[in-house]
Amino acid sequence: MTGRDIPWSPVLPDGLTVPNSSIHAVHDDDLADVLEALGLAGAFGRRELRCKFCEVVVDEANLYSIFADSGDIKVVCDKPDCVKALLRYTNQRTTIR
Asked: What is the pLDDT along the chain (97 residues), one digit of tens a residue?
């Protein structure tokens, strides 16, 4: 059996699912440009951006995700509980629509 033959399920251990949406990745080398385009570069550089779920300061070392939320741009840190919270949050948003 090759890697292509292994069935993959988007259901995660806690019963969370990966929403059916596009996933965009940003290379470390391009992060500054992305933050600038989103208008977040200054706040990010001043360490003013906080995780949506735990309020810890988000920087290059702990940034997990950037996403749109009701017209705002939010960031999420890489703490496992915050990553799970992001999955729960996106699942709720996709099932409501």
From this structure: 344 444 444 555 566 555 555 567 888 889 999 999 999 999 999 999 999 999 999 999 999 999 999 899 999 999 999 999 999 998 887 665 5
Q: Phi, psi at residue 67, to the nearest 5°?
A: -150, 155
| Entry pTM | 0.75
Site of tokens 């470390």: 28
Asked, for residue 16, whether it belongs to a domain, the answer is no
Per DSSP (E only), the strands in 1-97 are: 63-69, 72-77
Neighbours of 76 (CB within 10 A): 22
Tell me, yes or no, whether 62 lies in a domain: yes
Token readout for 29 is: 């080398």
In a domain, 31, yes or no: yes
Number of domains in the chain: 1
Residue 75 near residue 57 (C-beta atoms within 8 A): no
